[in-house]
Amino acid sequence: MRGFIFIAVIAAAYTASAVPIDQNEPEYVYERFIKFPDGDGIMHDVDLEAEPDHELLNEISRNPANNRYLLYTRRNPTSPQTLVINNANSIRNSNFNRNAPTVVIAHGWLSNQKSNLNPVIRDVYLRKLEANVIIVDWRRLAMSDYVTAVRGVPAVGRGLGQFLAFVNQITGAPFNSMHLVGFSLGAHLVGNAGRELGGRVARVTGLDPAGPLWSYNSNRLNRNDGVYVEAIHTDGGYTVGGLGIGSAVANADFFPNGGISQPGCLTNICNHNRAWELFAATVTYNHLIGNQCSNNLQITLNNCRGPRLHMGNDDLRKFGNGLYRLDTGRRHPF
């Protein structure tokens, strides 16, 4: 009996400190001073109560088209073509193929087109199929302080949505052939892009959506941003203050290895980046499958026995709902 009580207490304590949360539970409130990584994995001090750069925010709001849109296809797999909103010839004279799926990739804070996730995800797509891979370089805002970047993400996301509407207008490429993929702050950015388009894009995938300043933020990624919205949580947790948001935000929320720490990782940066590494692997292998969980306790105790759903991949007709747990390996392809 004593043994049973001891196990129950340990389980309860672990649950309280580690489980991902859903919309009905209080969300993690970060301390004022935190550290958050750039695209190279270098940690930076962040004051979450800092005064944002209002001049930059006003500029971004007036002209959210400051983004660069860089197109890669099998005809130009490593040398991008720049697509420009409201410049029809930049699209007509490019290798954009209206009959191929379009994948949009958005990086995170203090990052740019050369950040590691961009070429990795680009290459796995182009090795697998004919696709239009568009990397969004939003460094004009992303290189600002974290608080300013968070404030400006909705405007930049709306700009991306307006750009995709222009692509649709010029080429006829349907929204149901578009998949928006964003990492960290970029996850909330693509959510706002999907929202700008009325939730008509086929898929929106958030790769460990950023946590600080997003817990109660109405502009964060949500399930209405696309026909199907998926989130992959790898560094969450509402009392441990992970870099990613710990709460369920999508139609289907995946919590690999519990969603807090990843095999082979000793740091939050490693856990955080594992989201895009896992996603890239699933585009190639489509091998990571989660079981649906009834609640957060099942995620923590790893005893989810519900229906199975593939995590990630490139399926534009995919759909699912709920919380999912799966276990992965330590190394690629996991």
TrEMBL record:
This is Esterase. Residues 1-18 form the signal peptide. GO terms for molecular function: lipase activity; serine hydrolase activity. It is found in: Secreted. GO terms for biological process: lipid catabolic process. InterPro entries: AB_hydrolase_fold (IPR029058), Lipase (IPR013818), Lipase_N (IPR033906), TAG_lipase (IPR000734). Its main location: secreted. Keywords: Secreted, Signal. Pfam families: Lipase (PF00151). It comes from Manduca sexta (Tobacco hawkmoth). Belongs to the AB hydrolase superfamily. Lipase family. Residues 62-306 form the Lipase domain. One of its GO terms (cellular component) is extracellular space. The lineage of its organism: Eukaryota, Metazoa, Ecdysozoa, Arthropoda, Hexapoda. It comes from the Eukaryota. Transmembrane segments: none annotated.
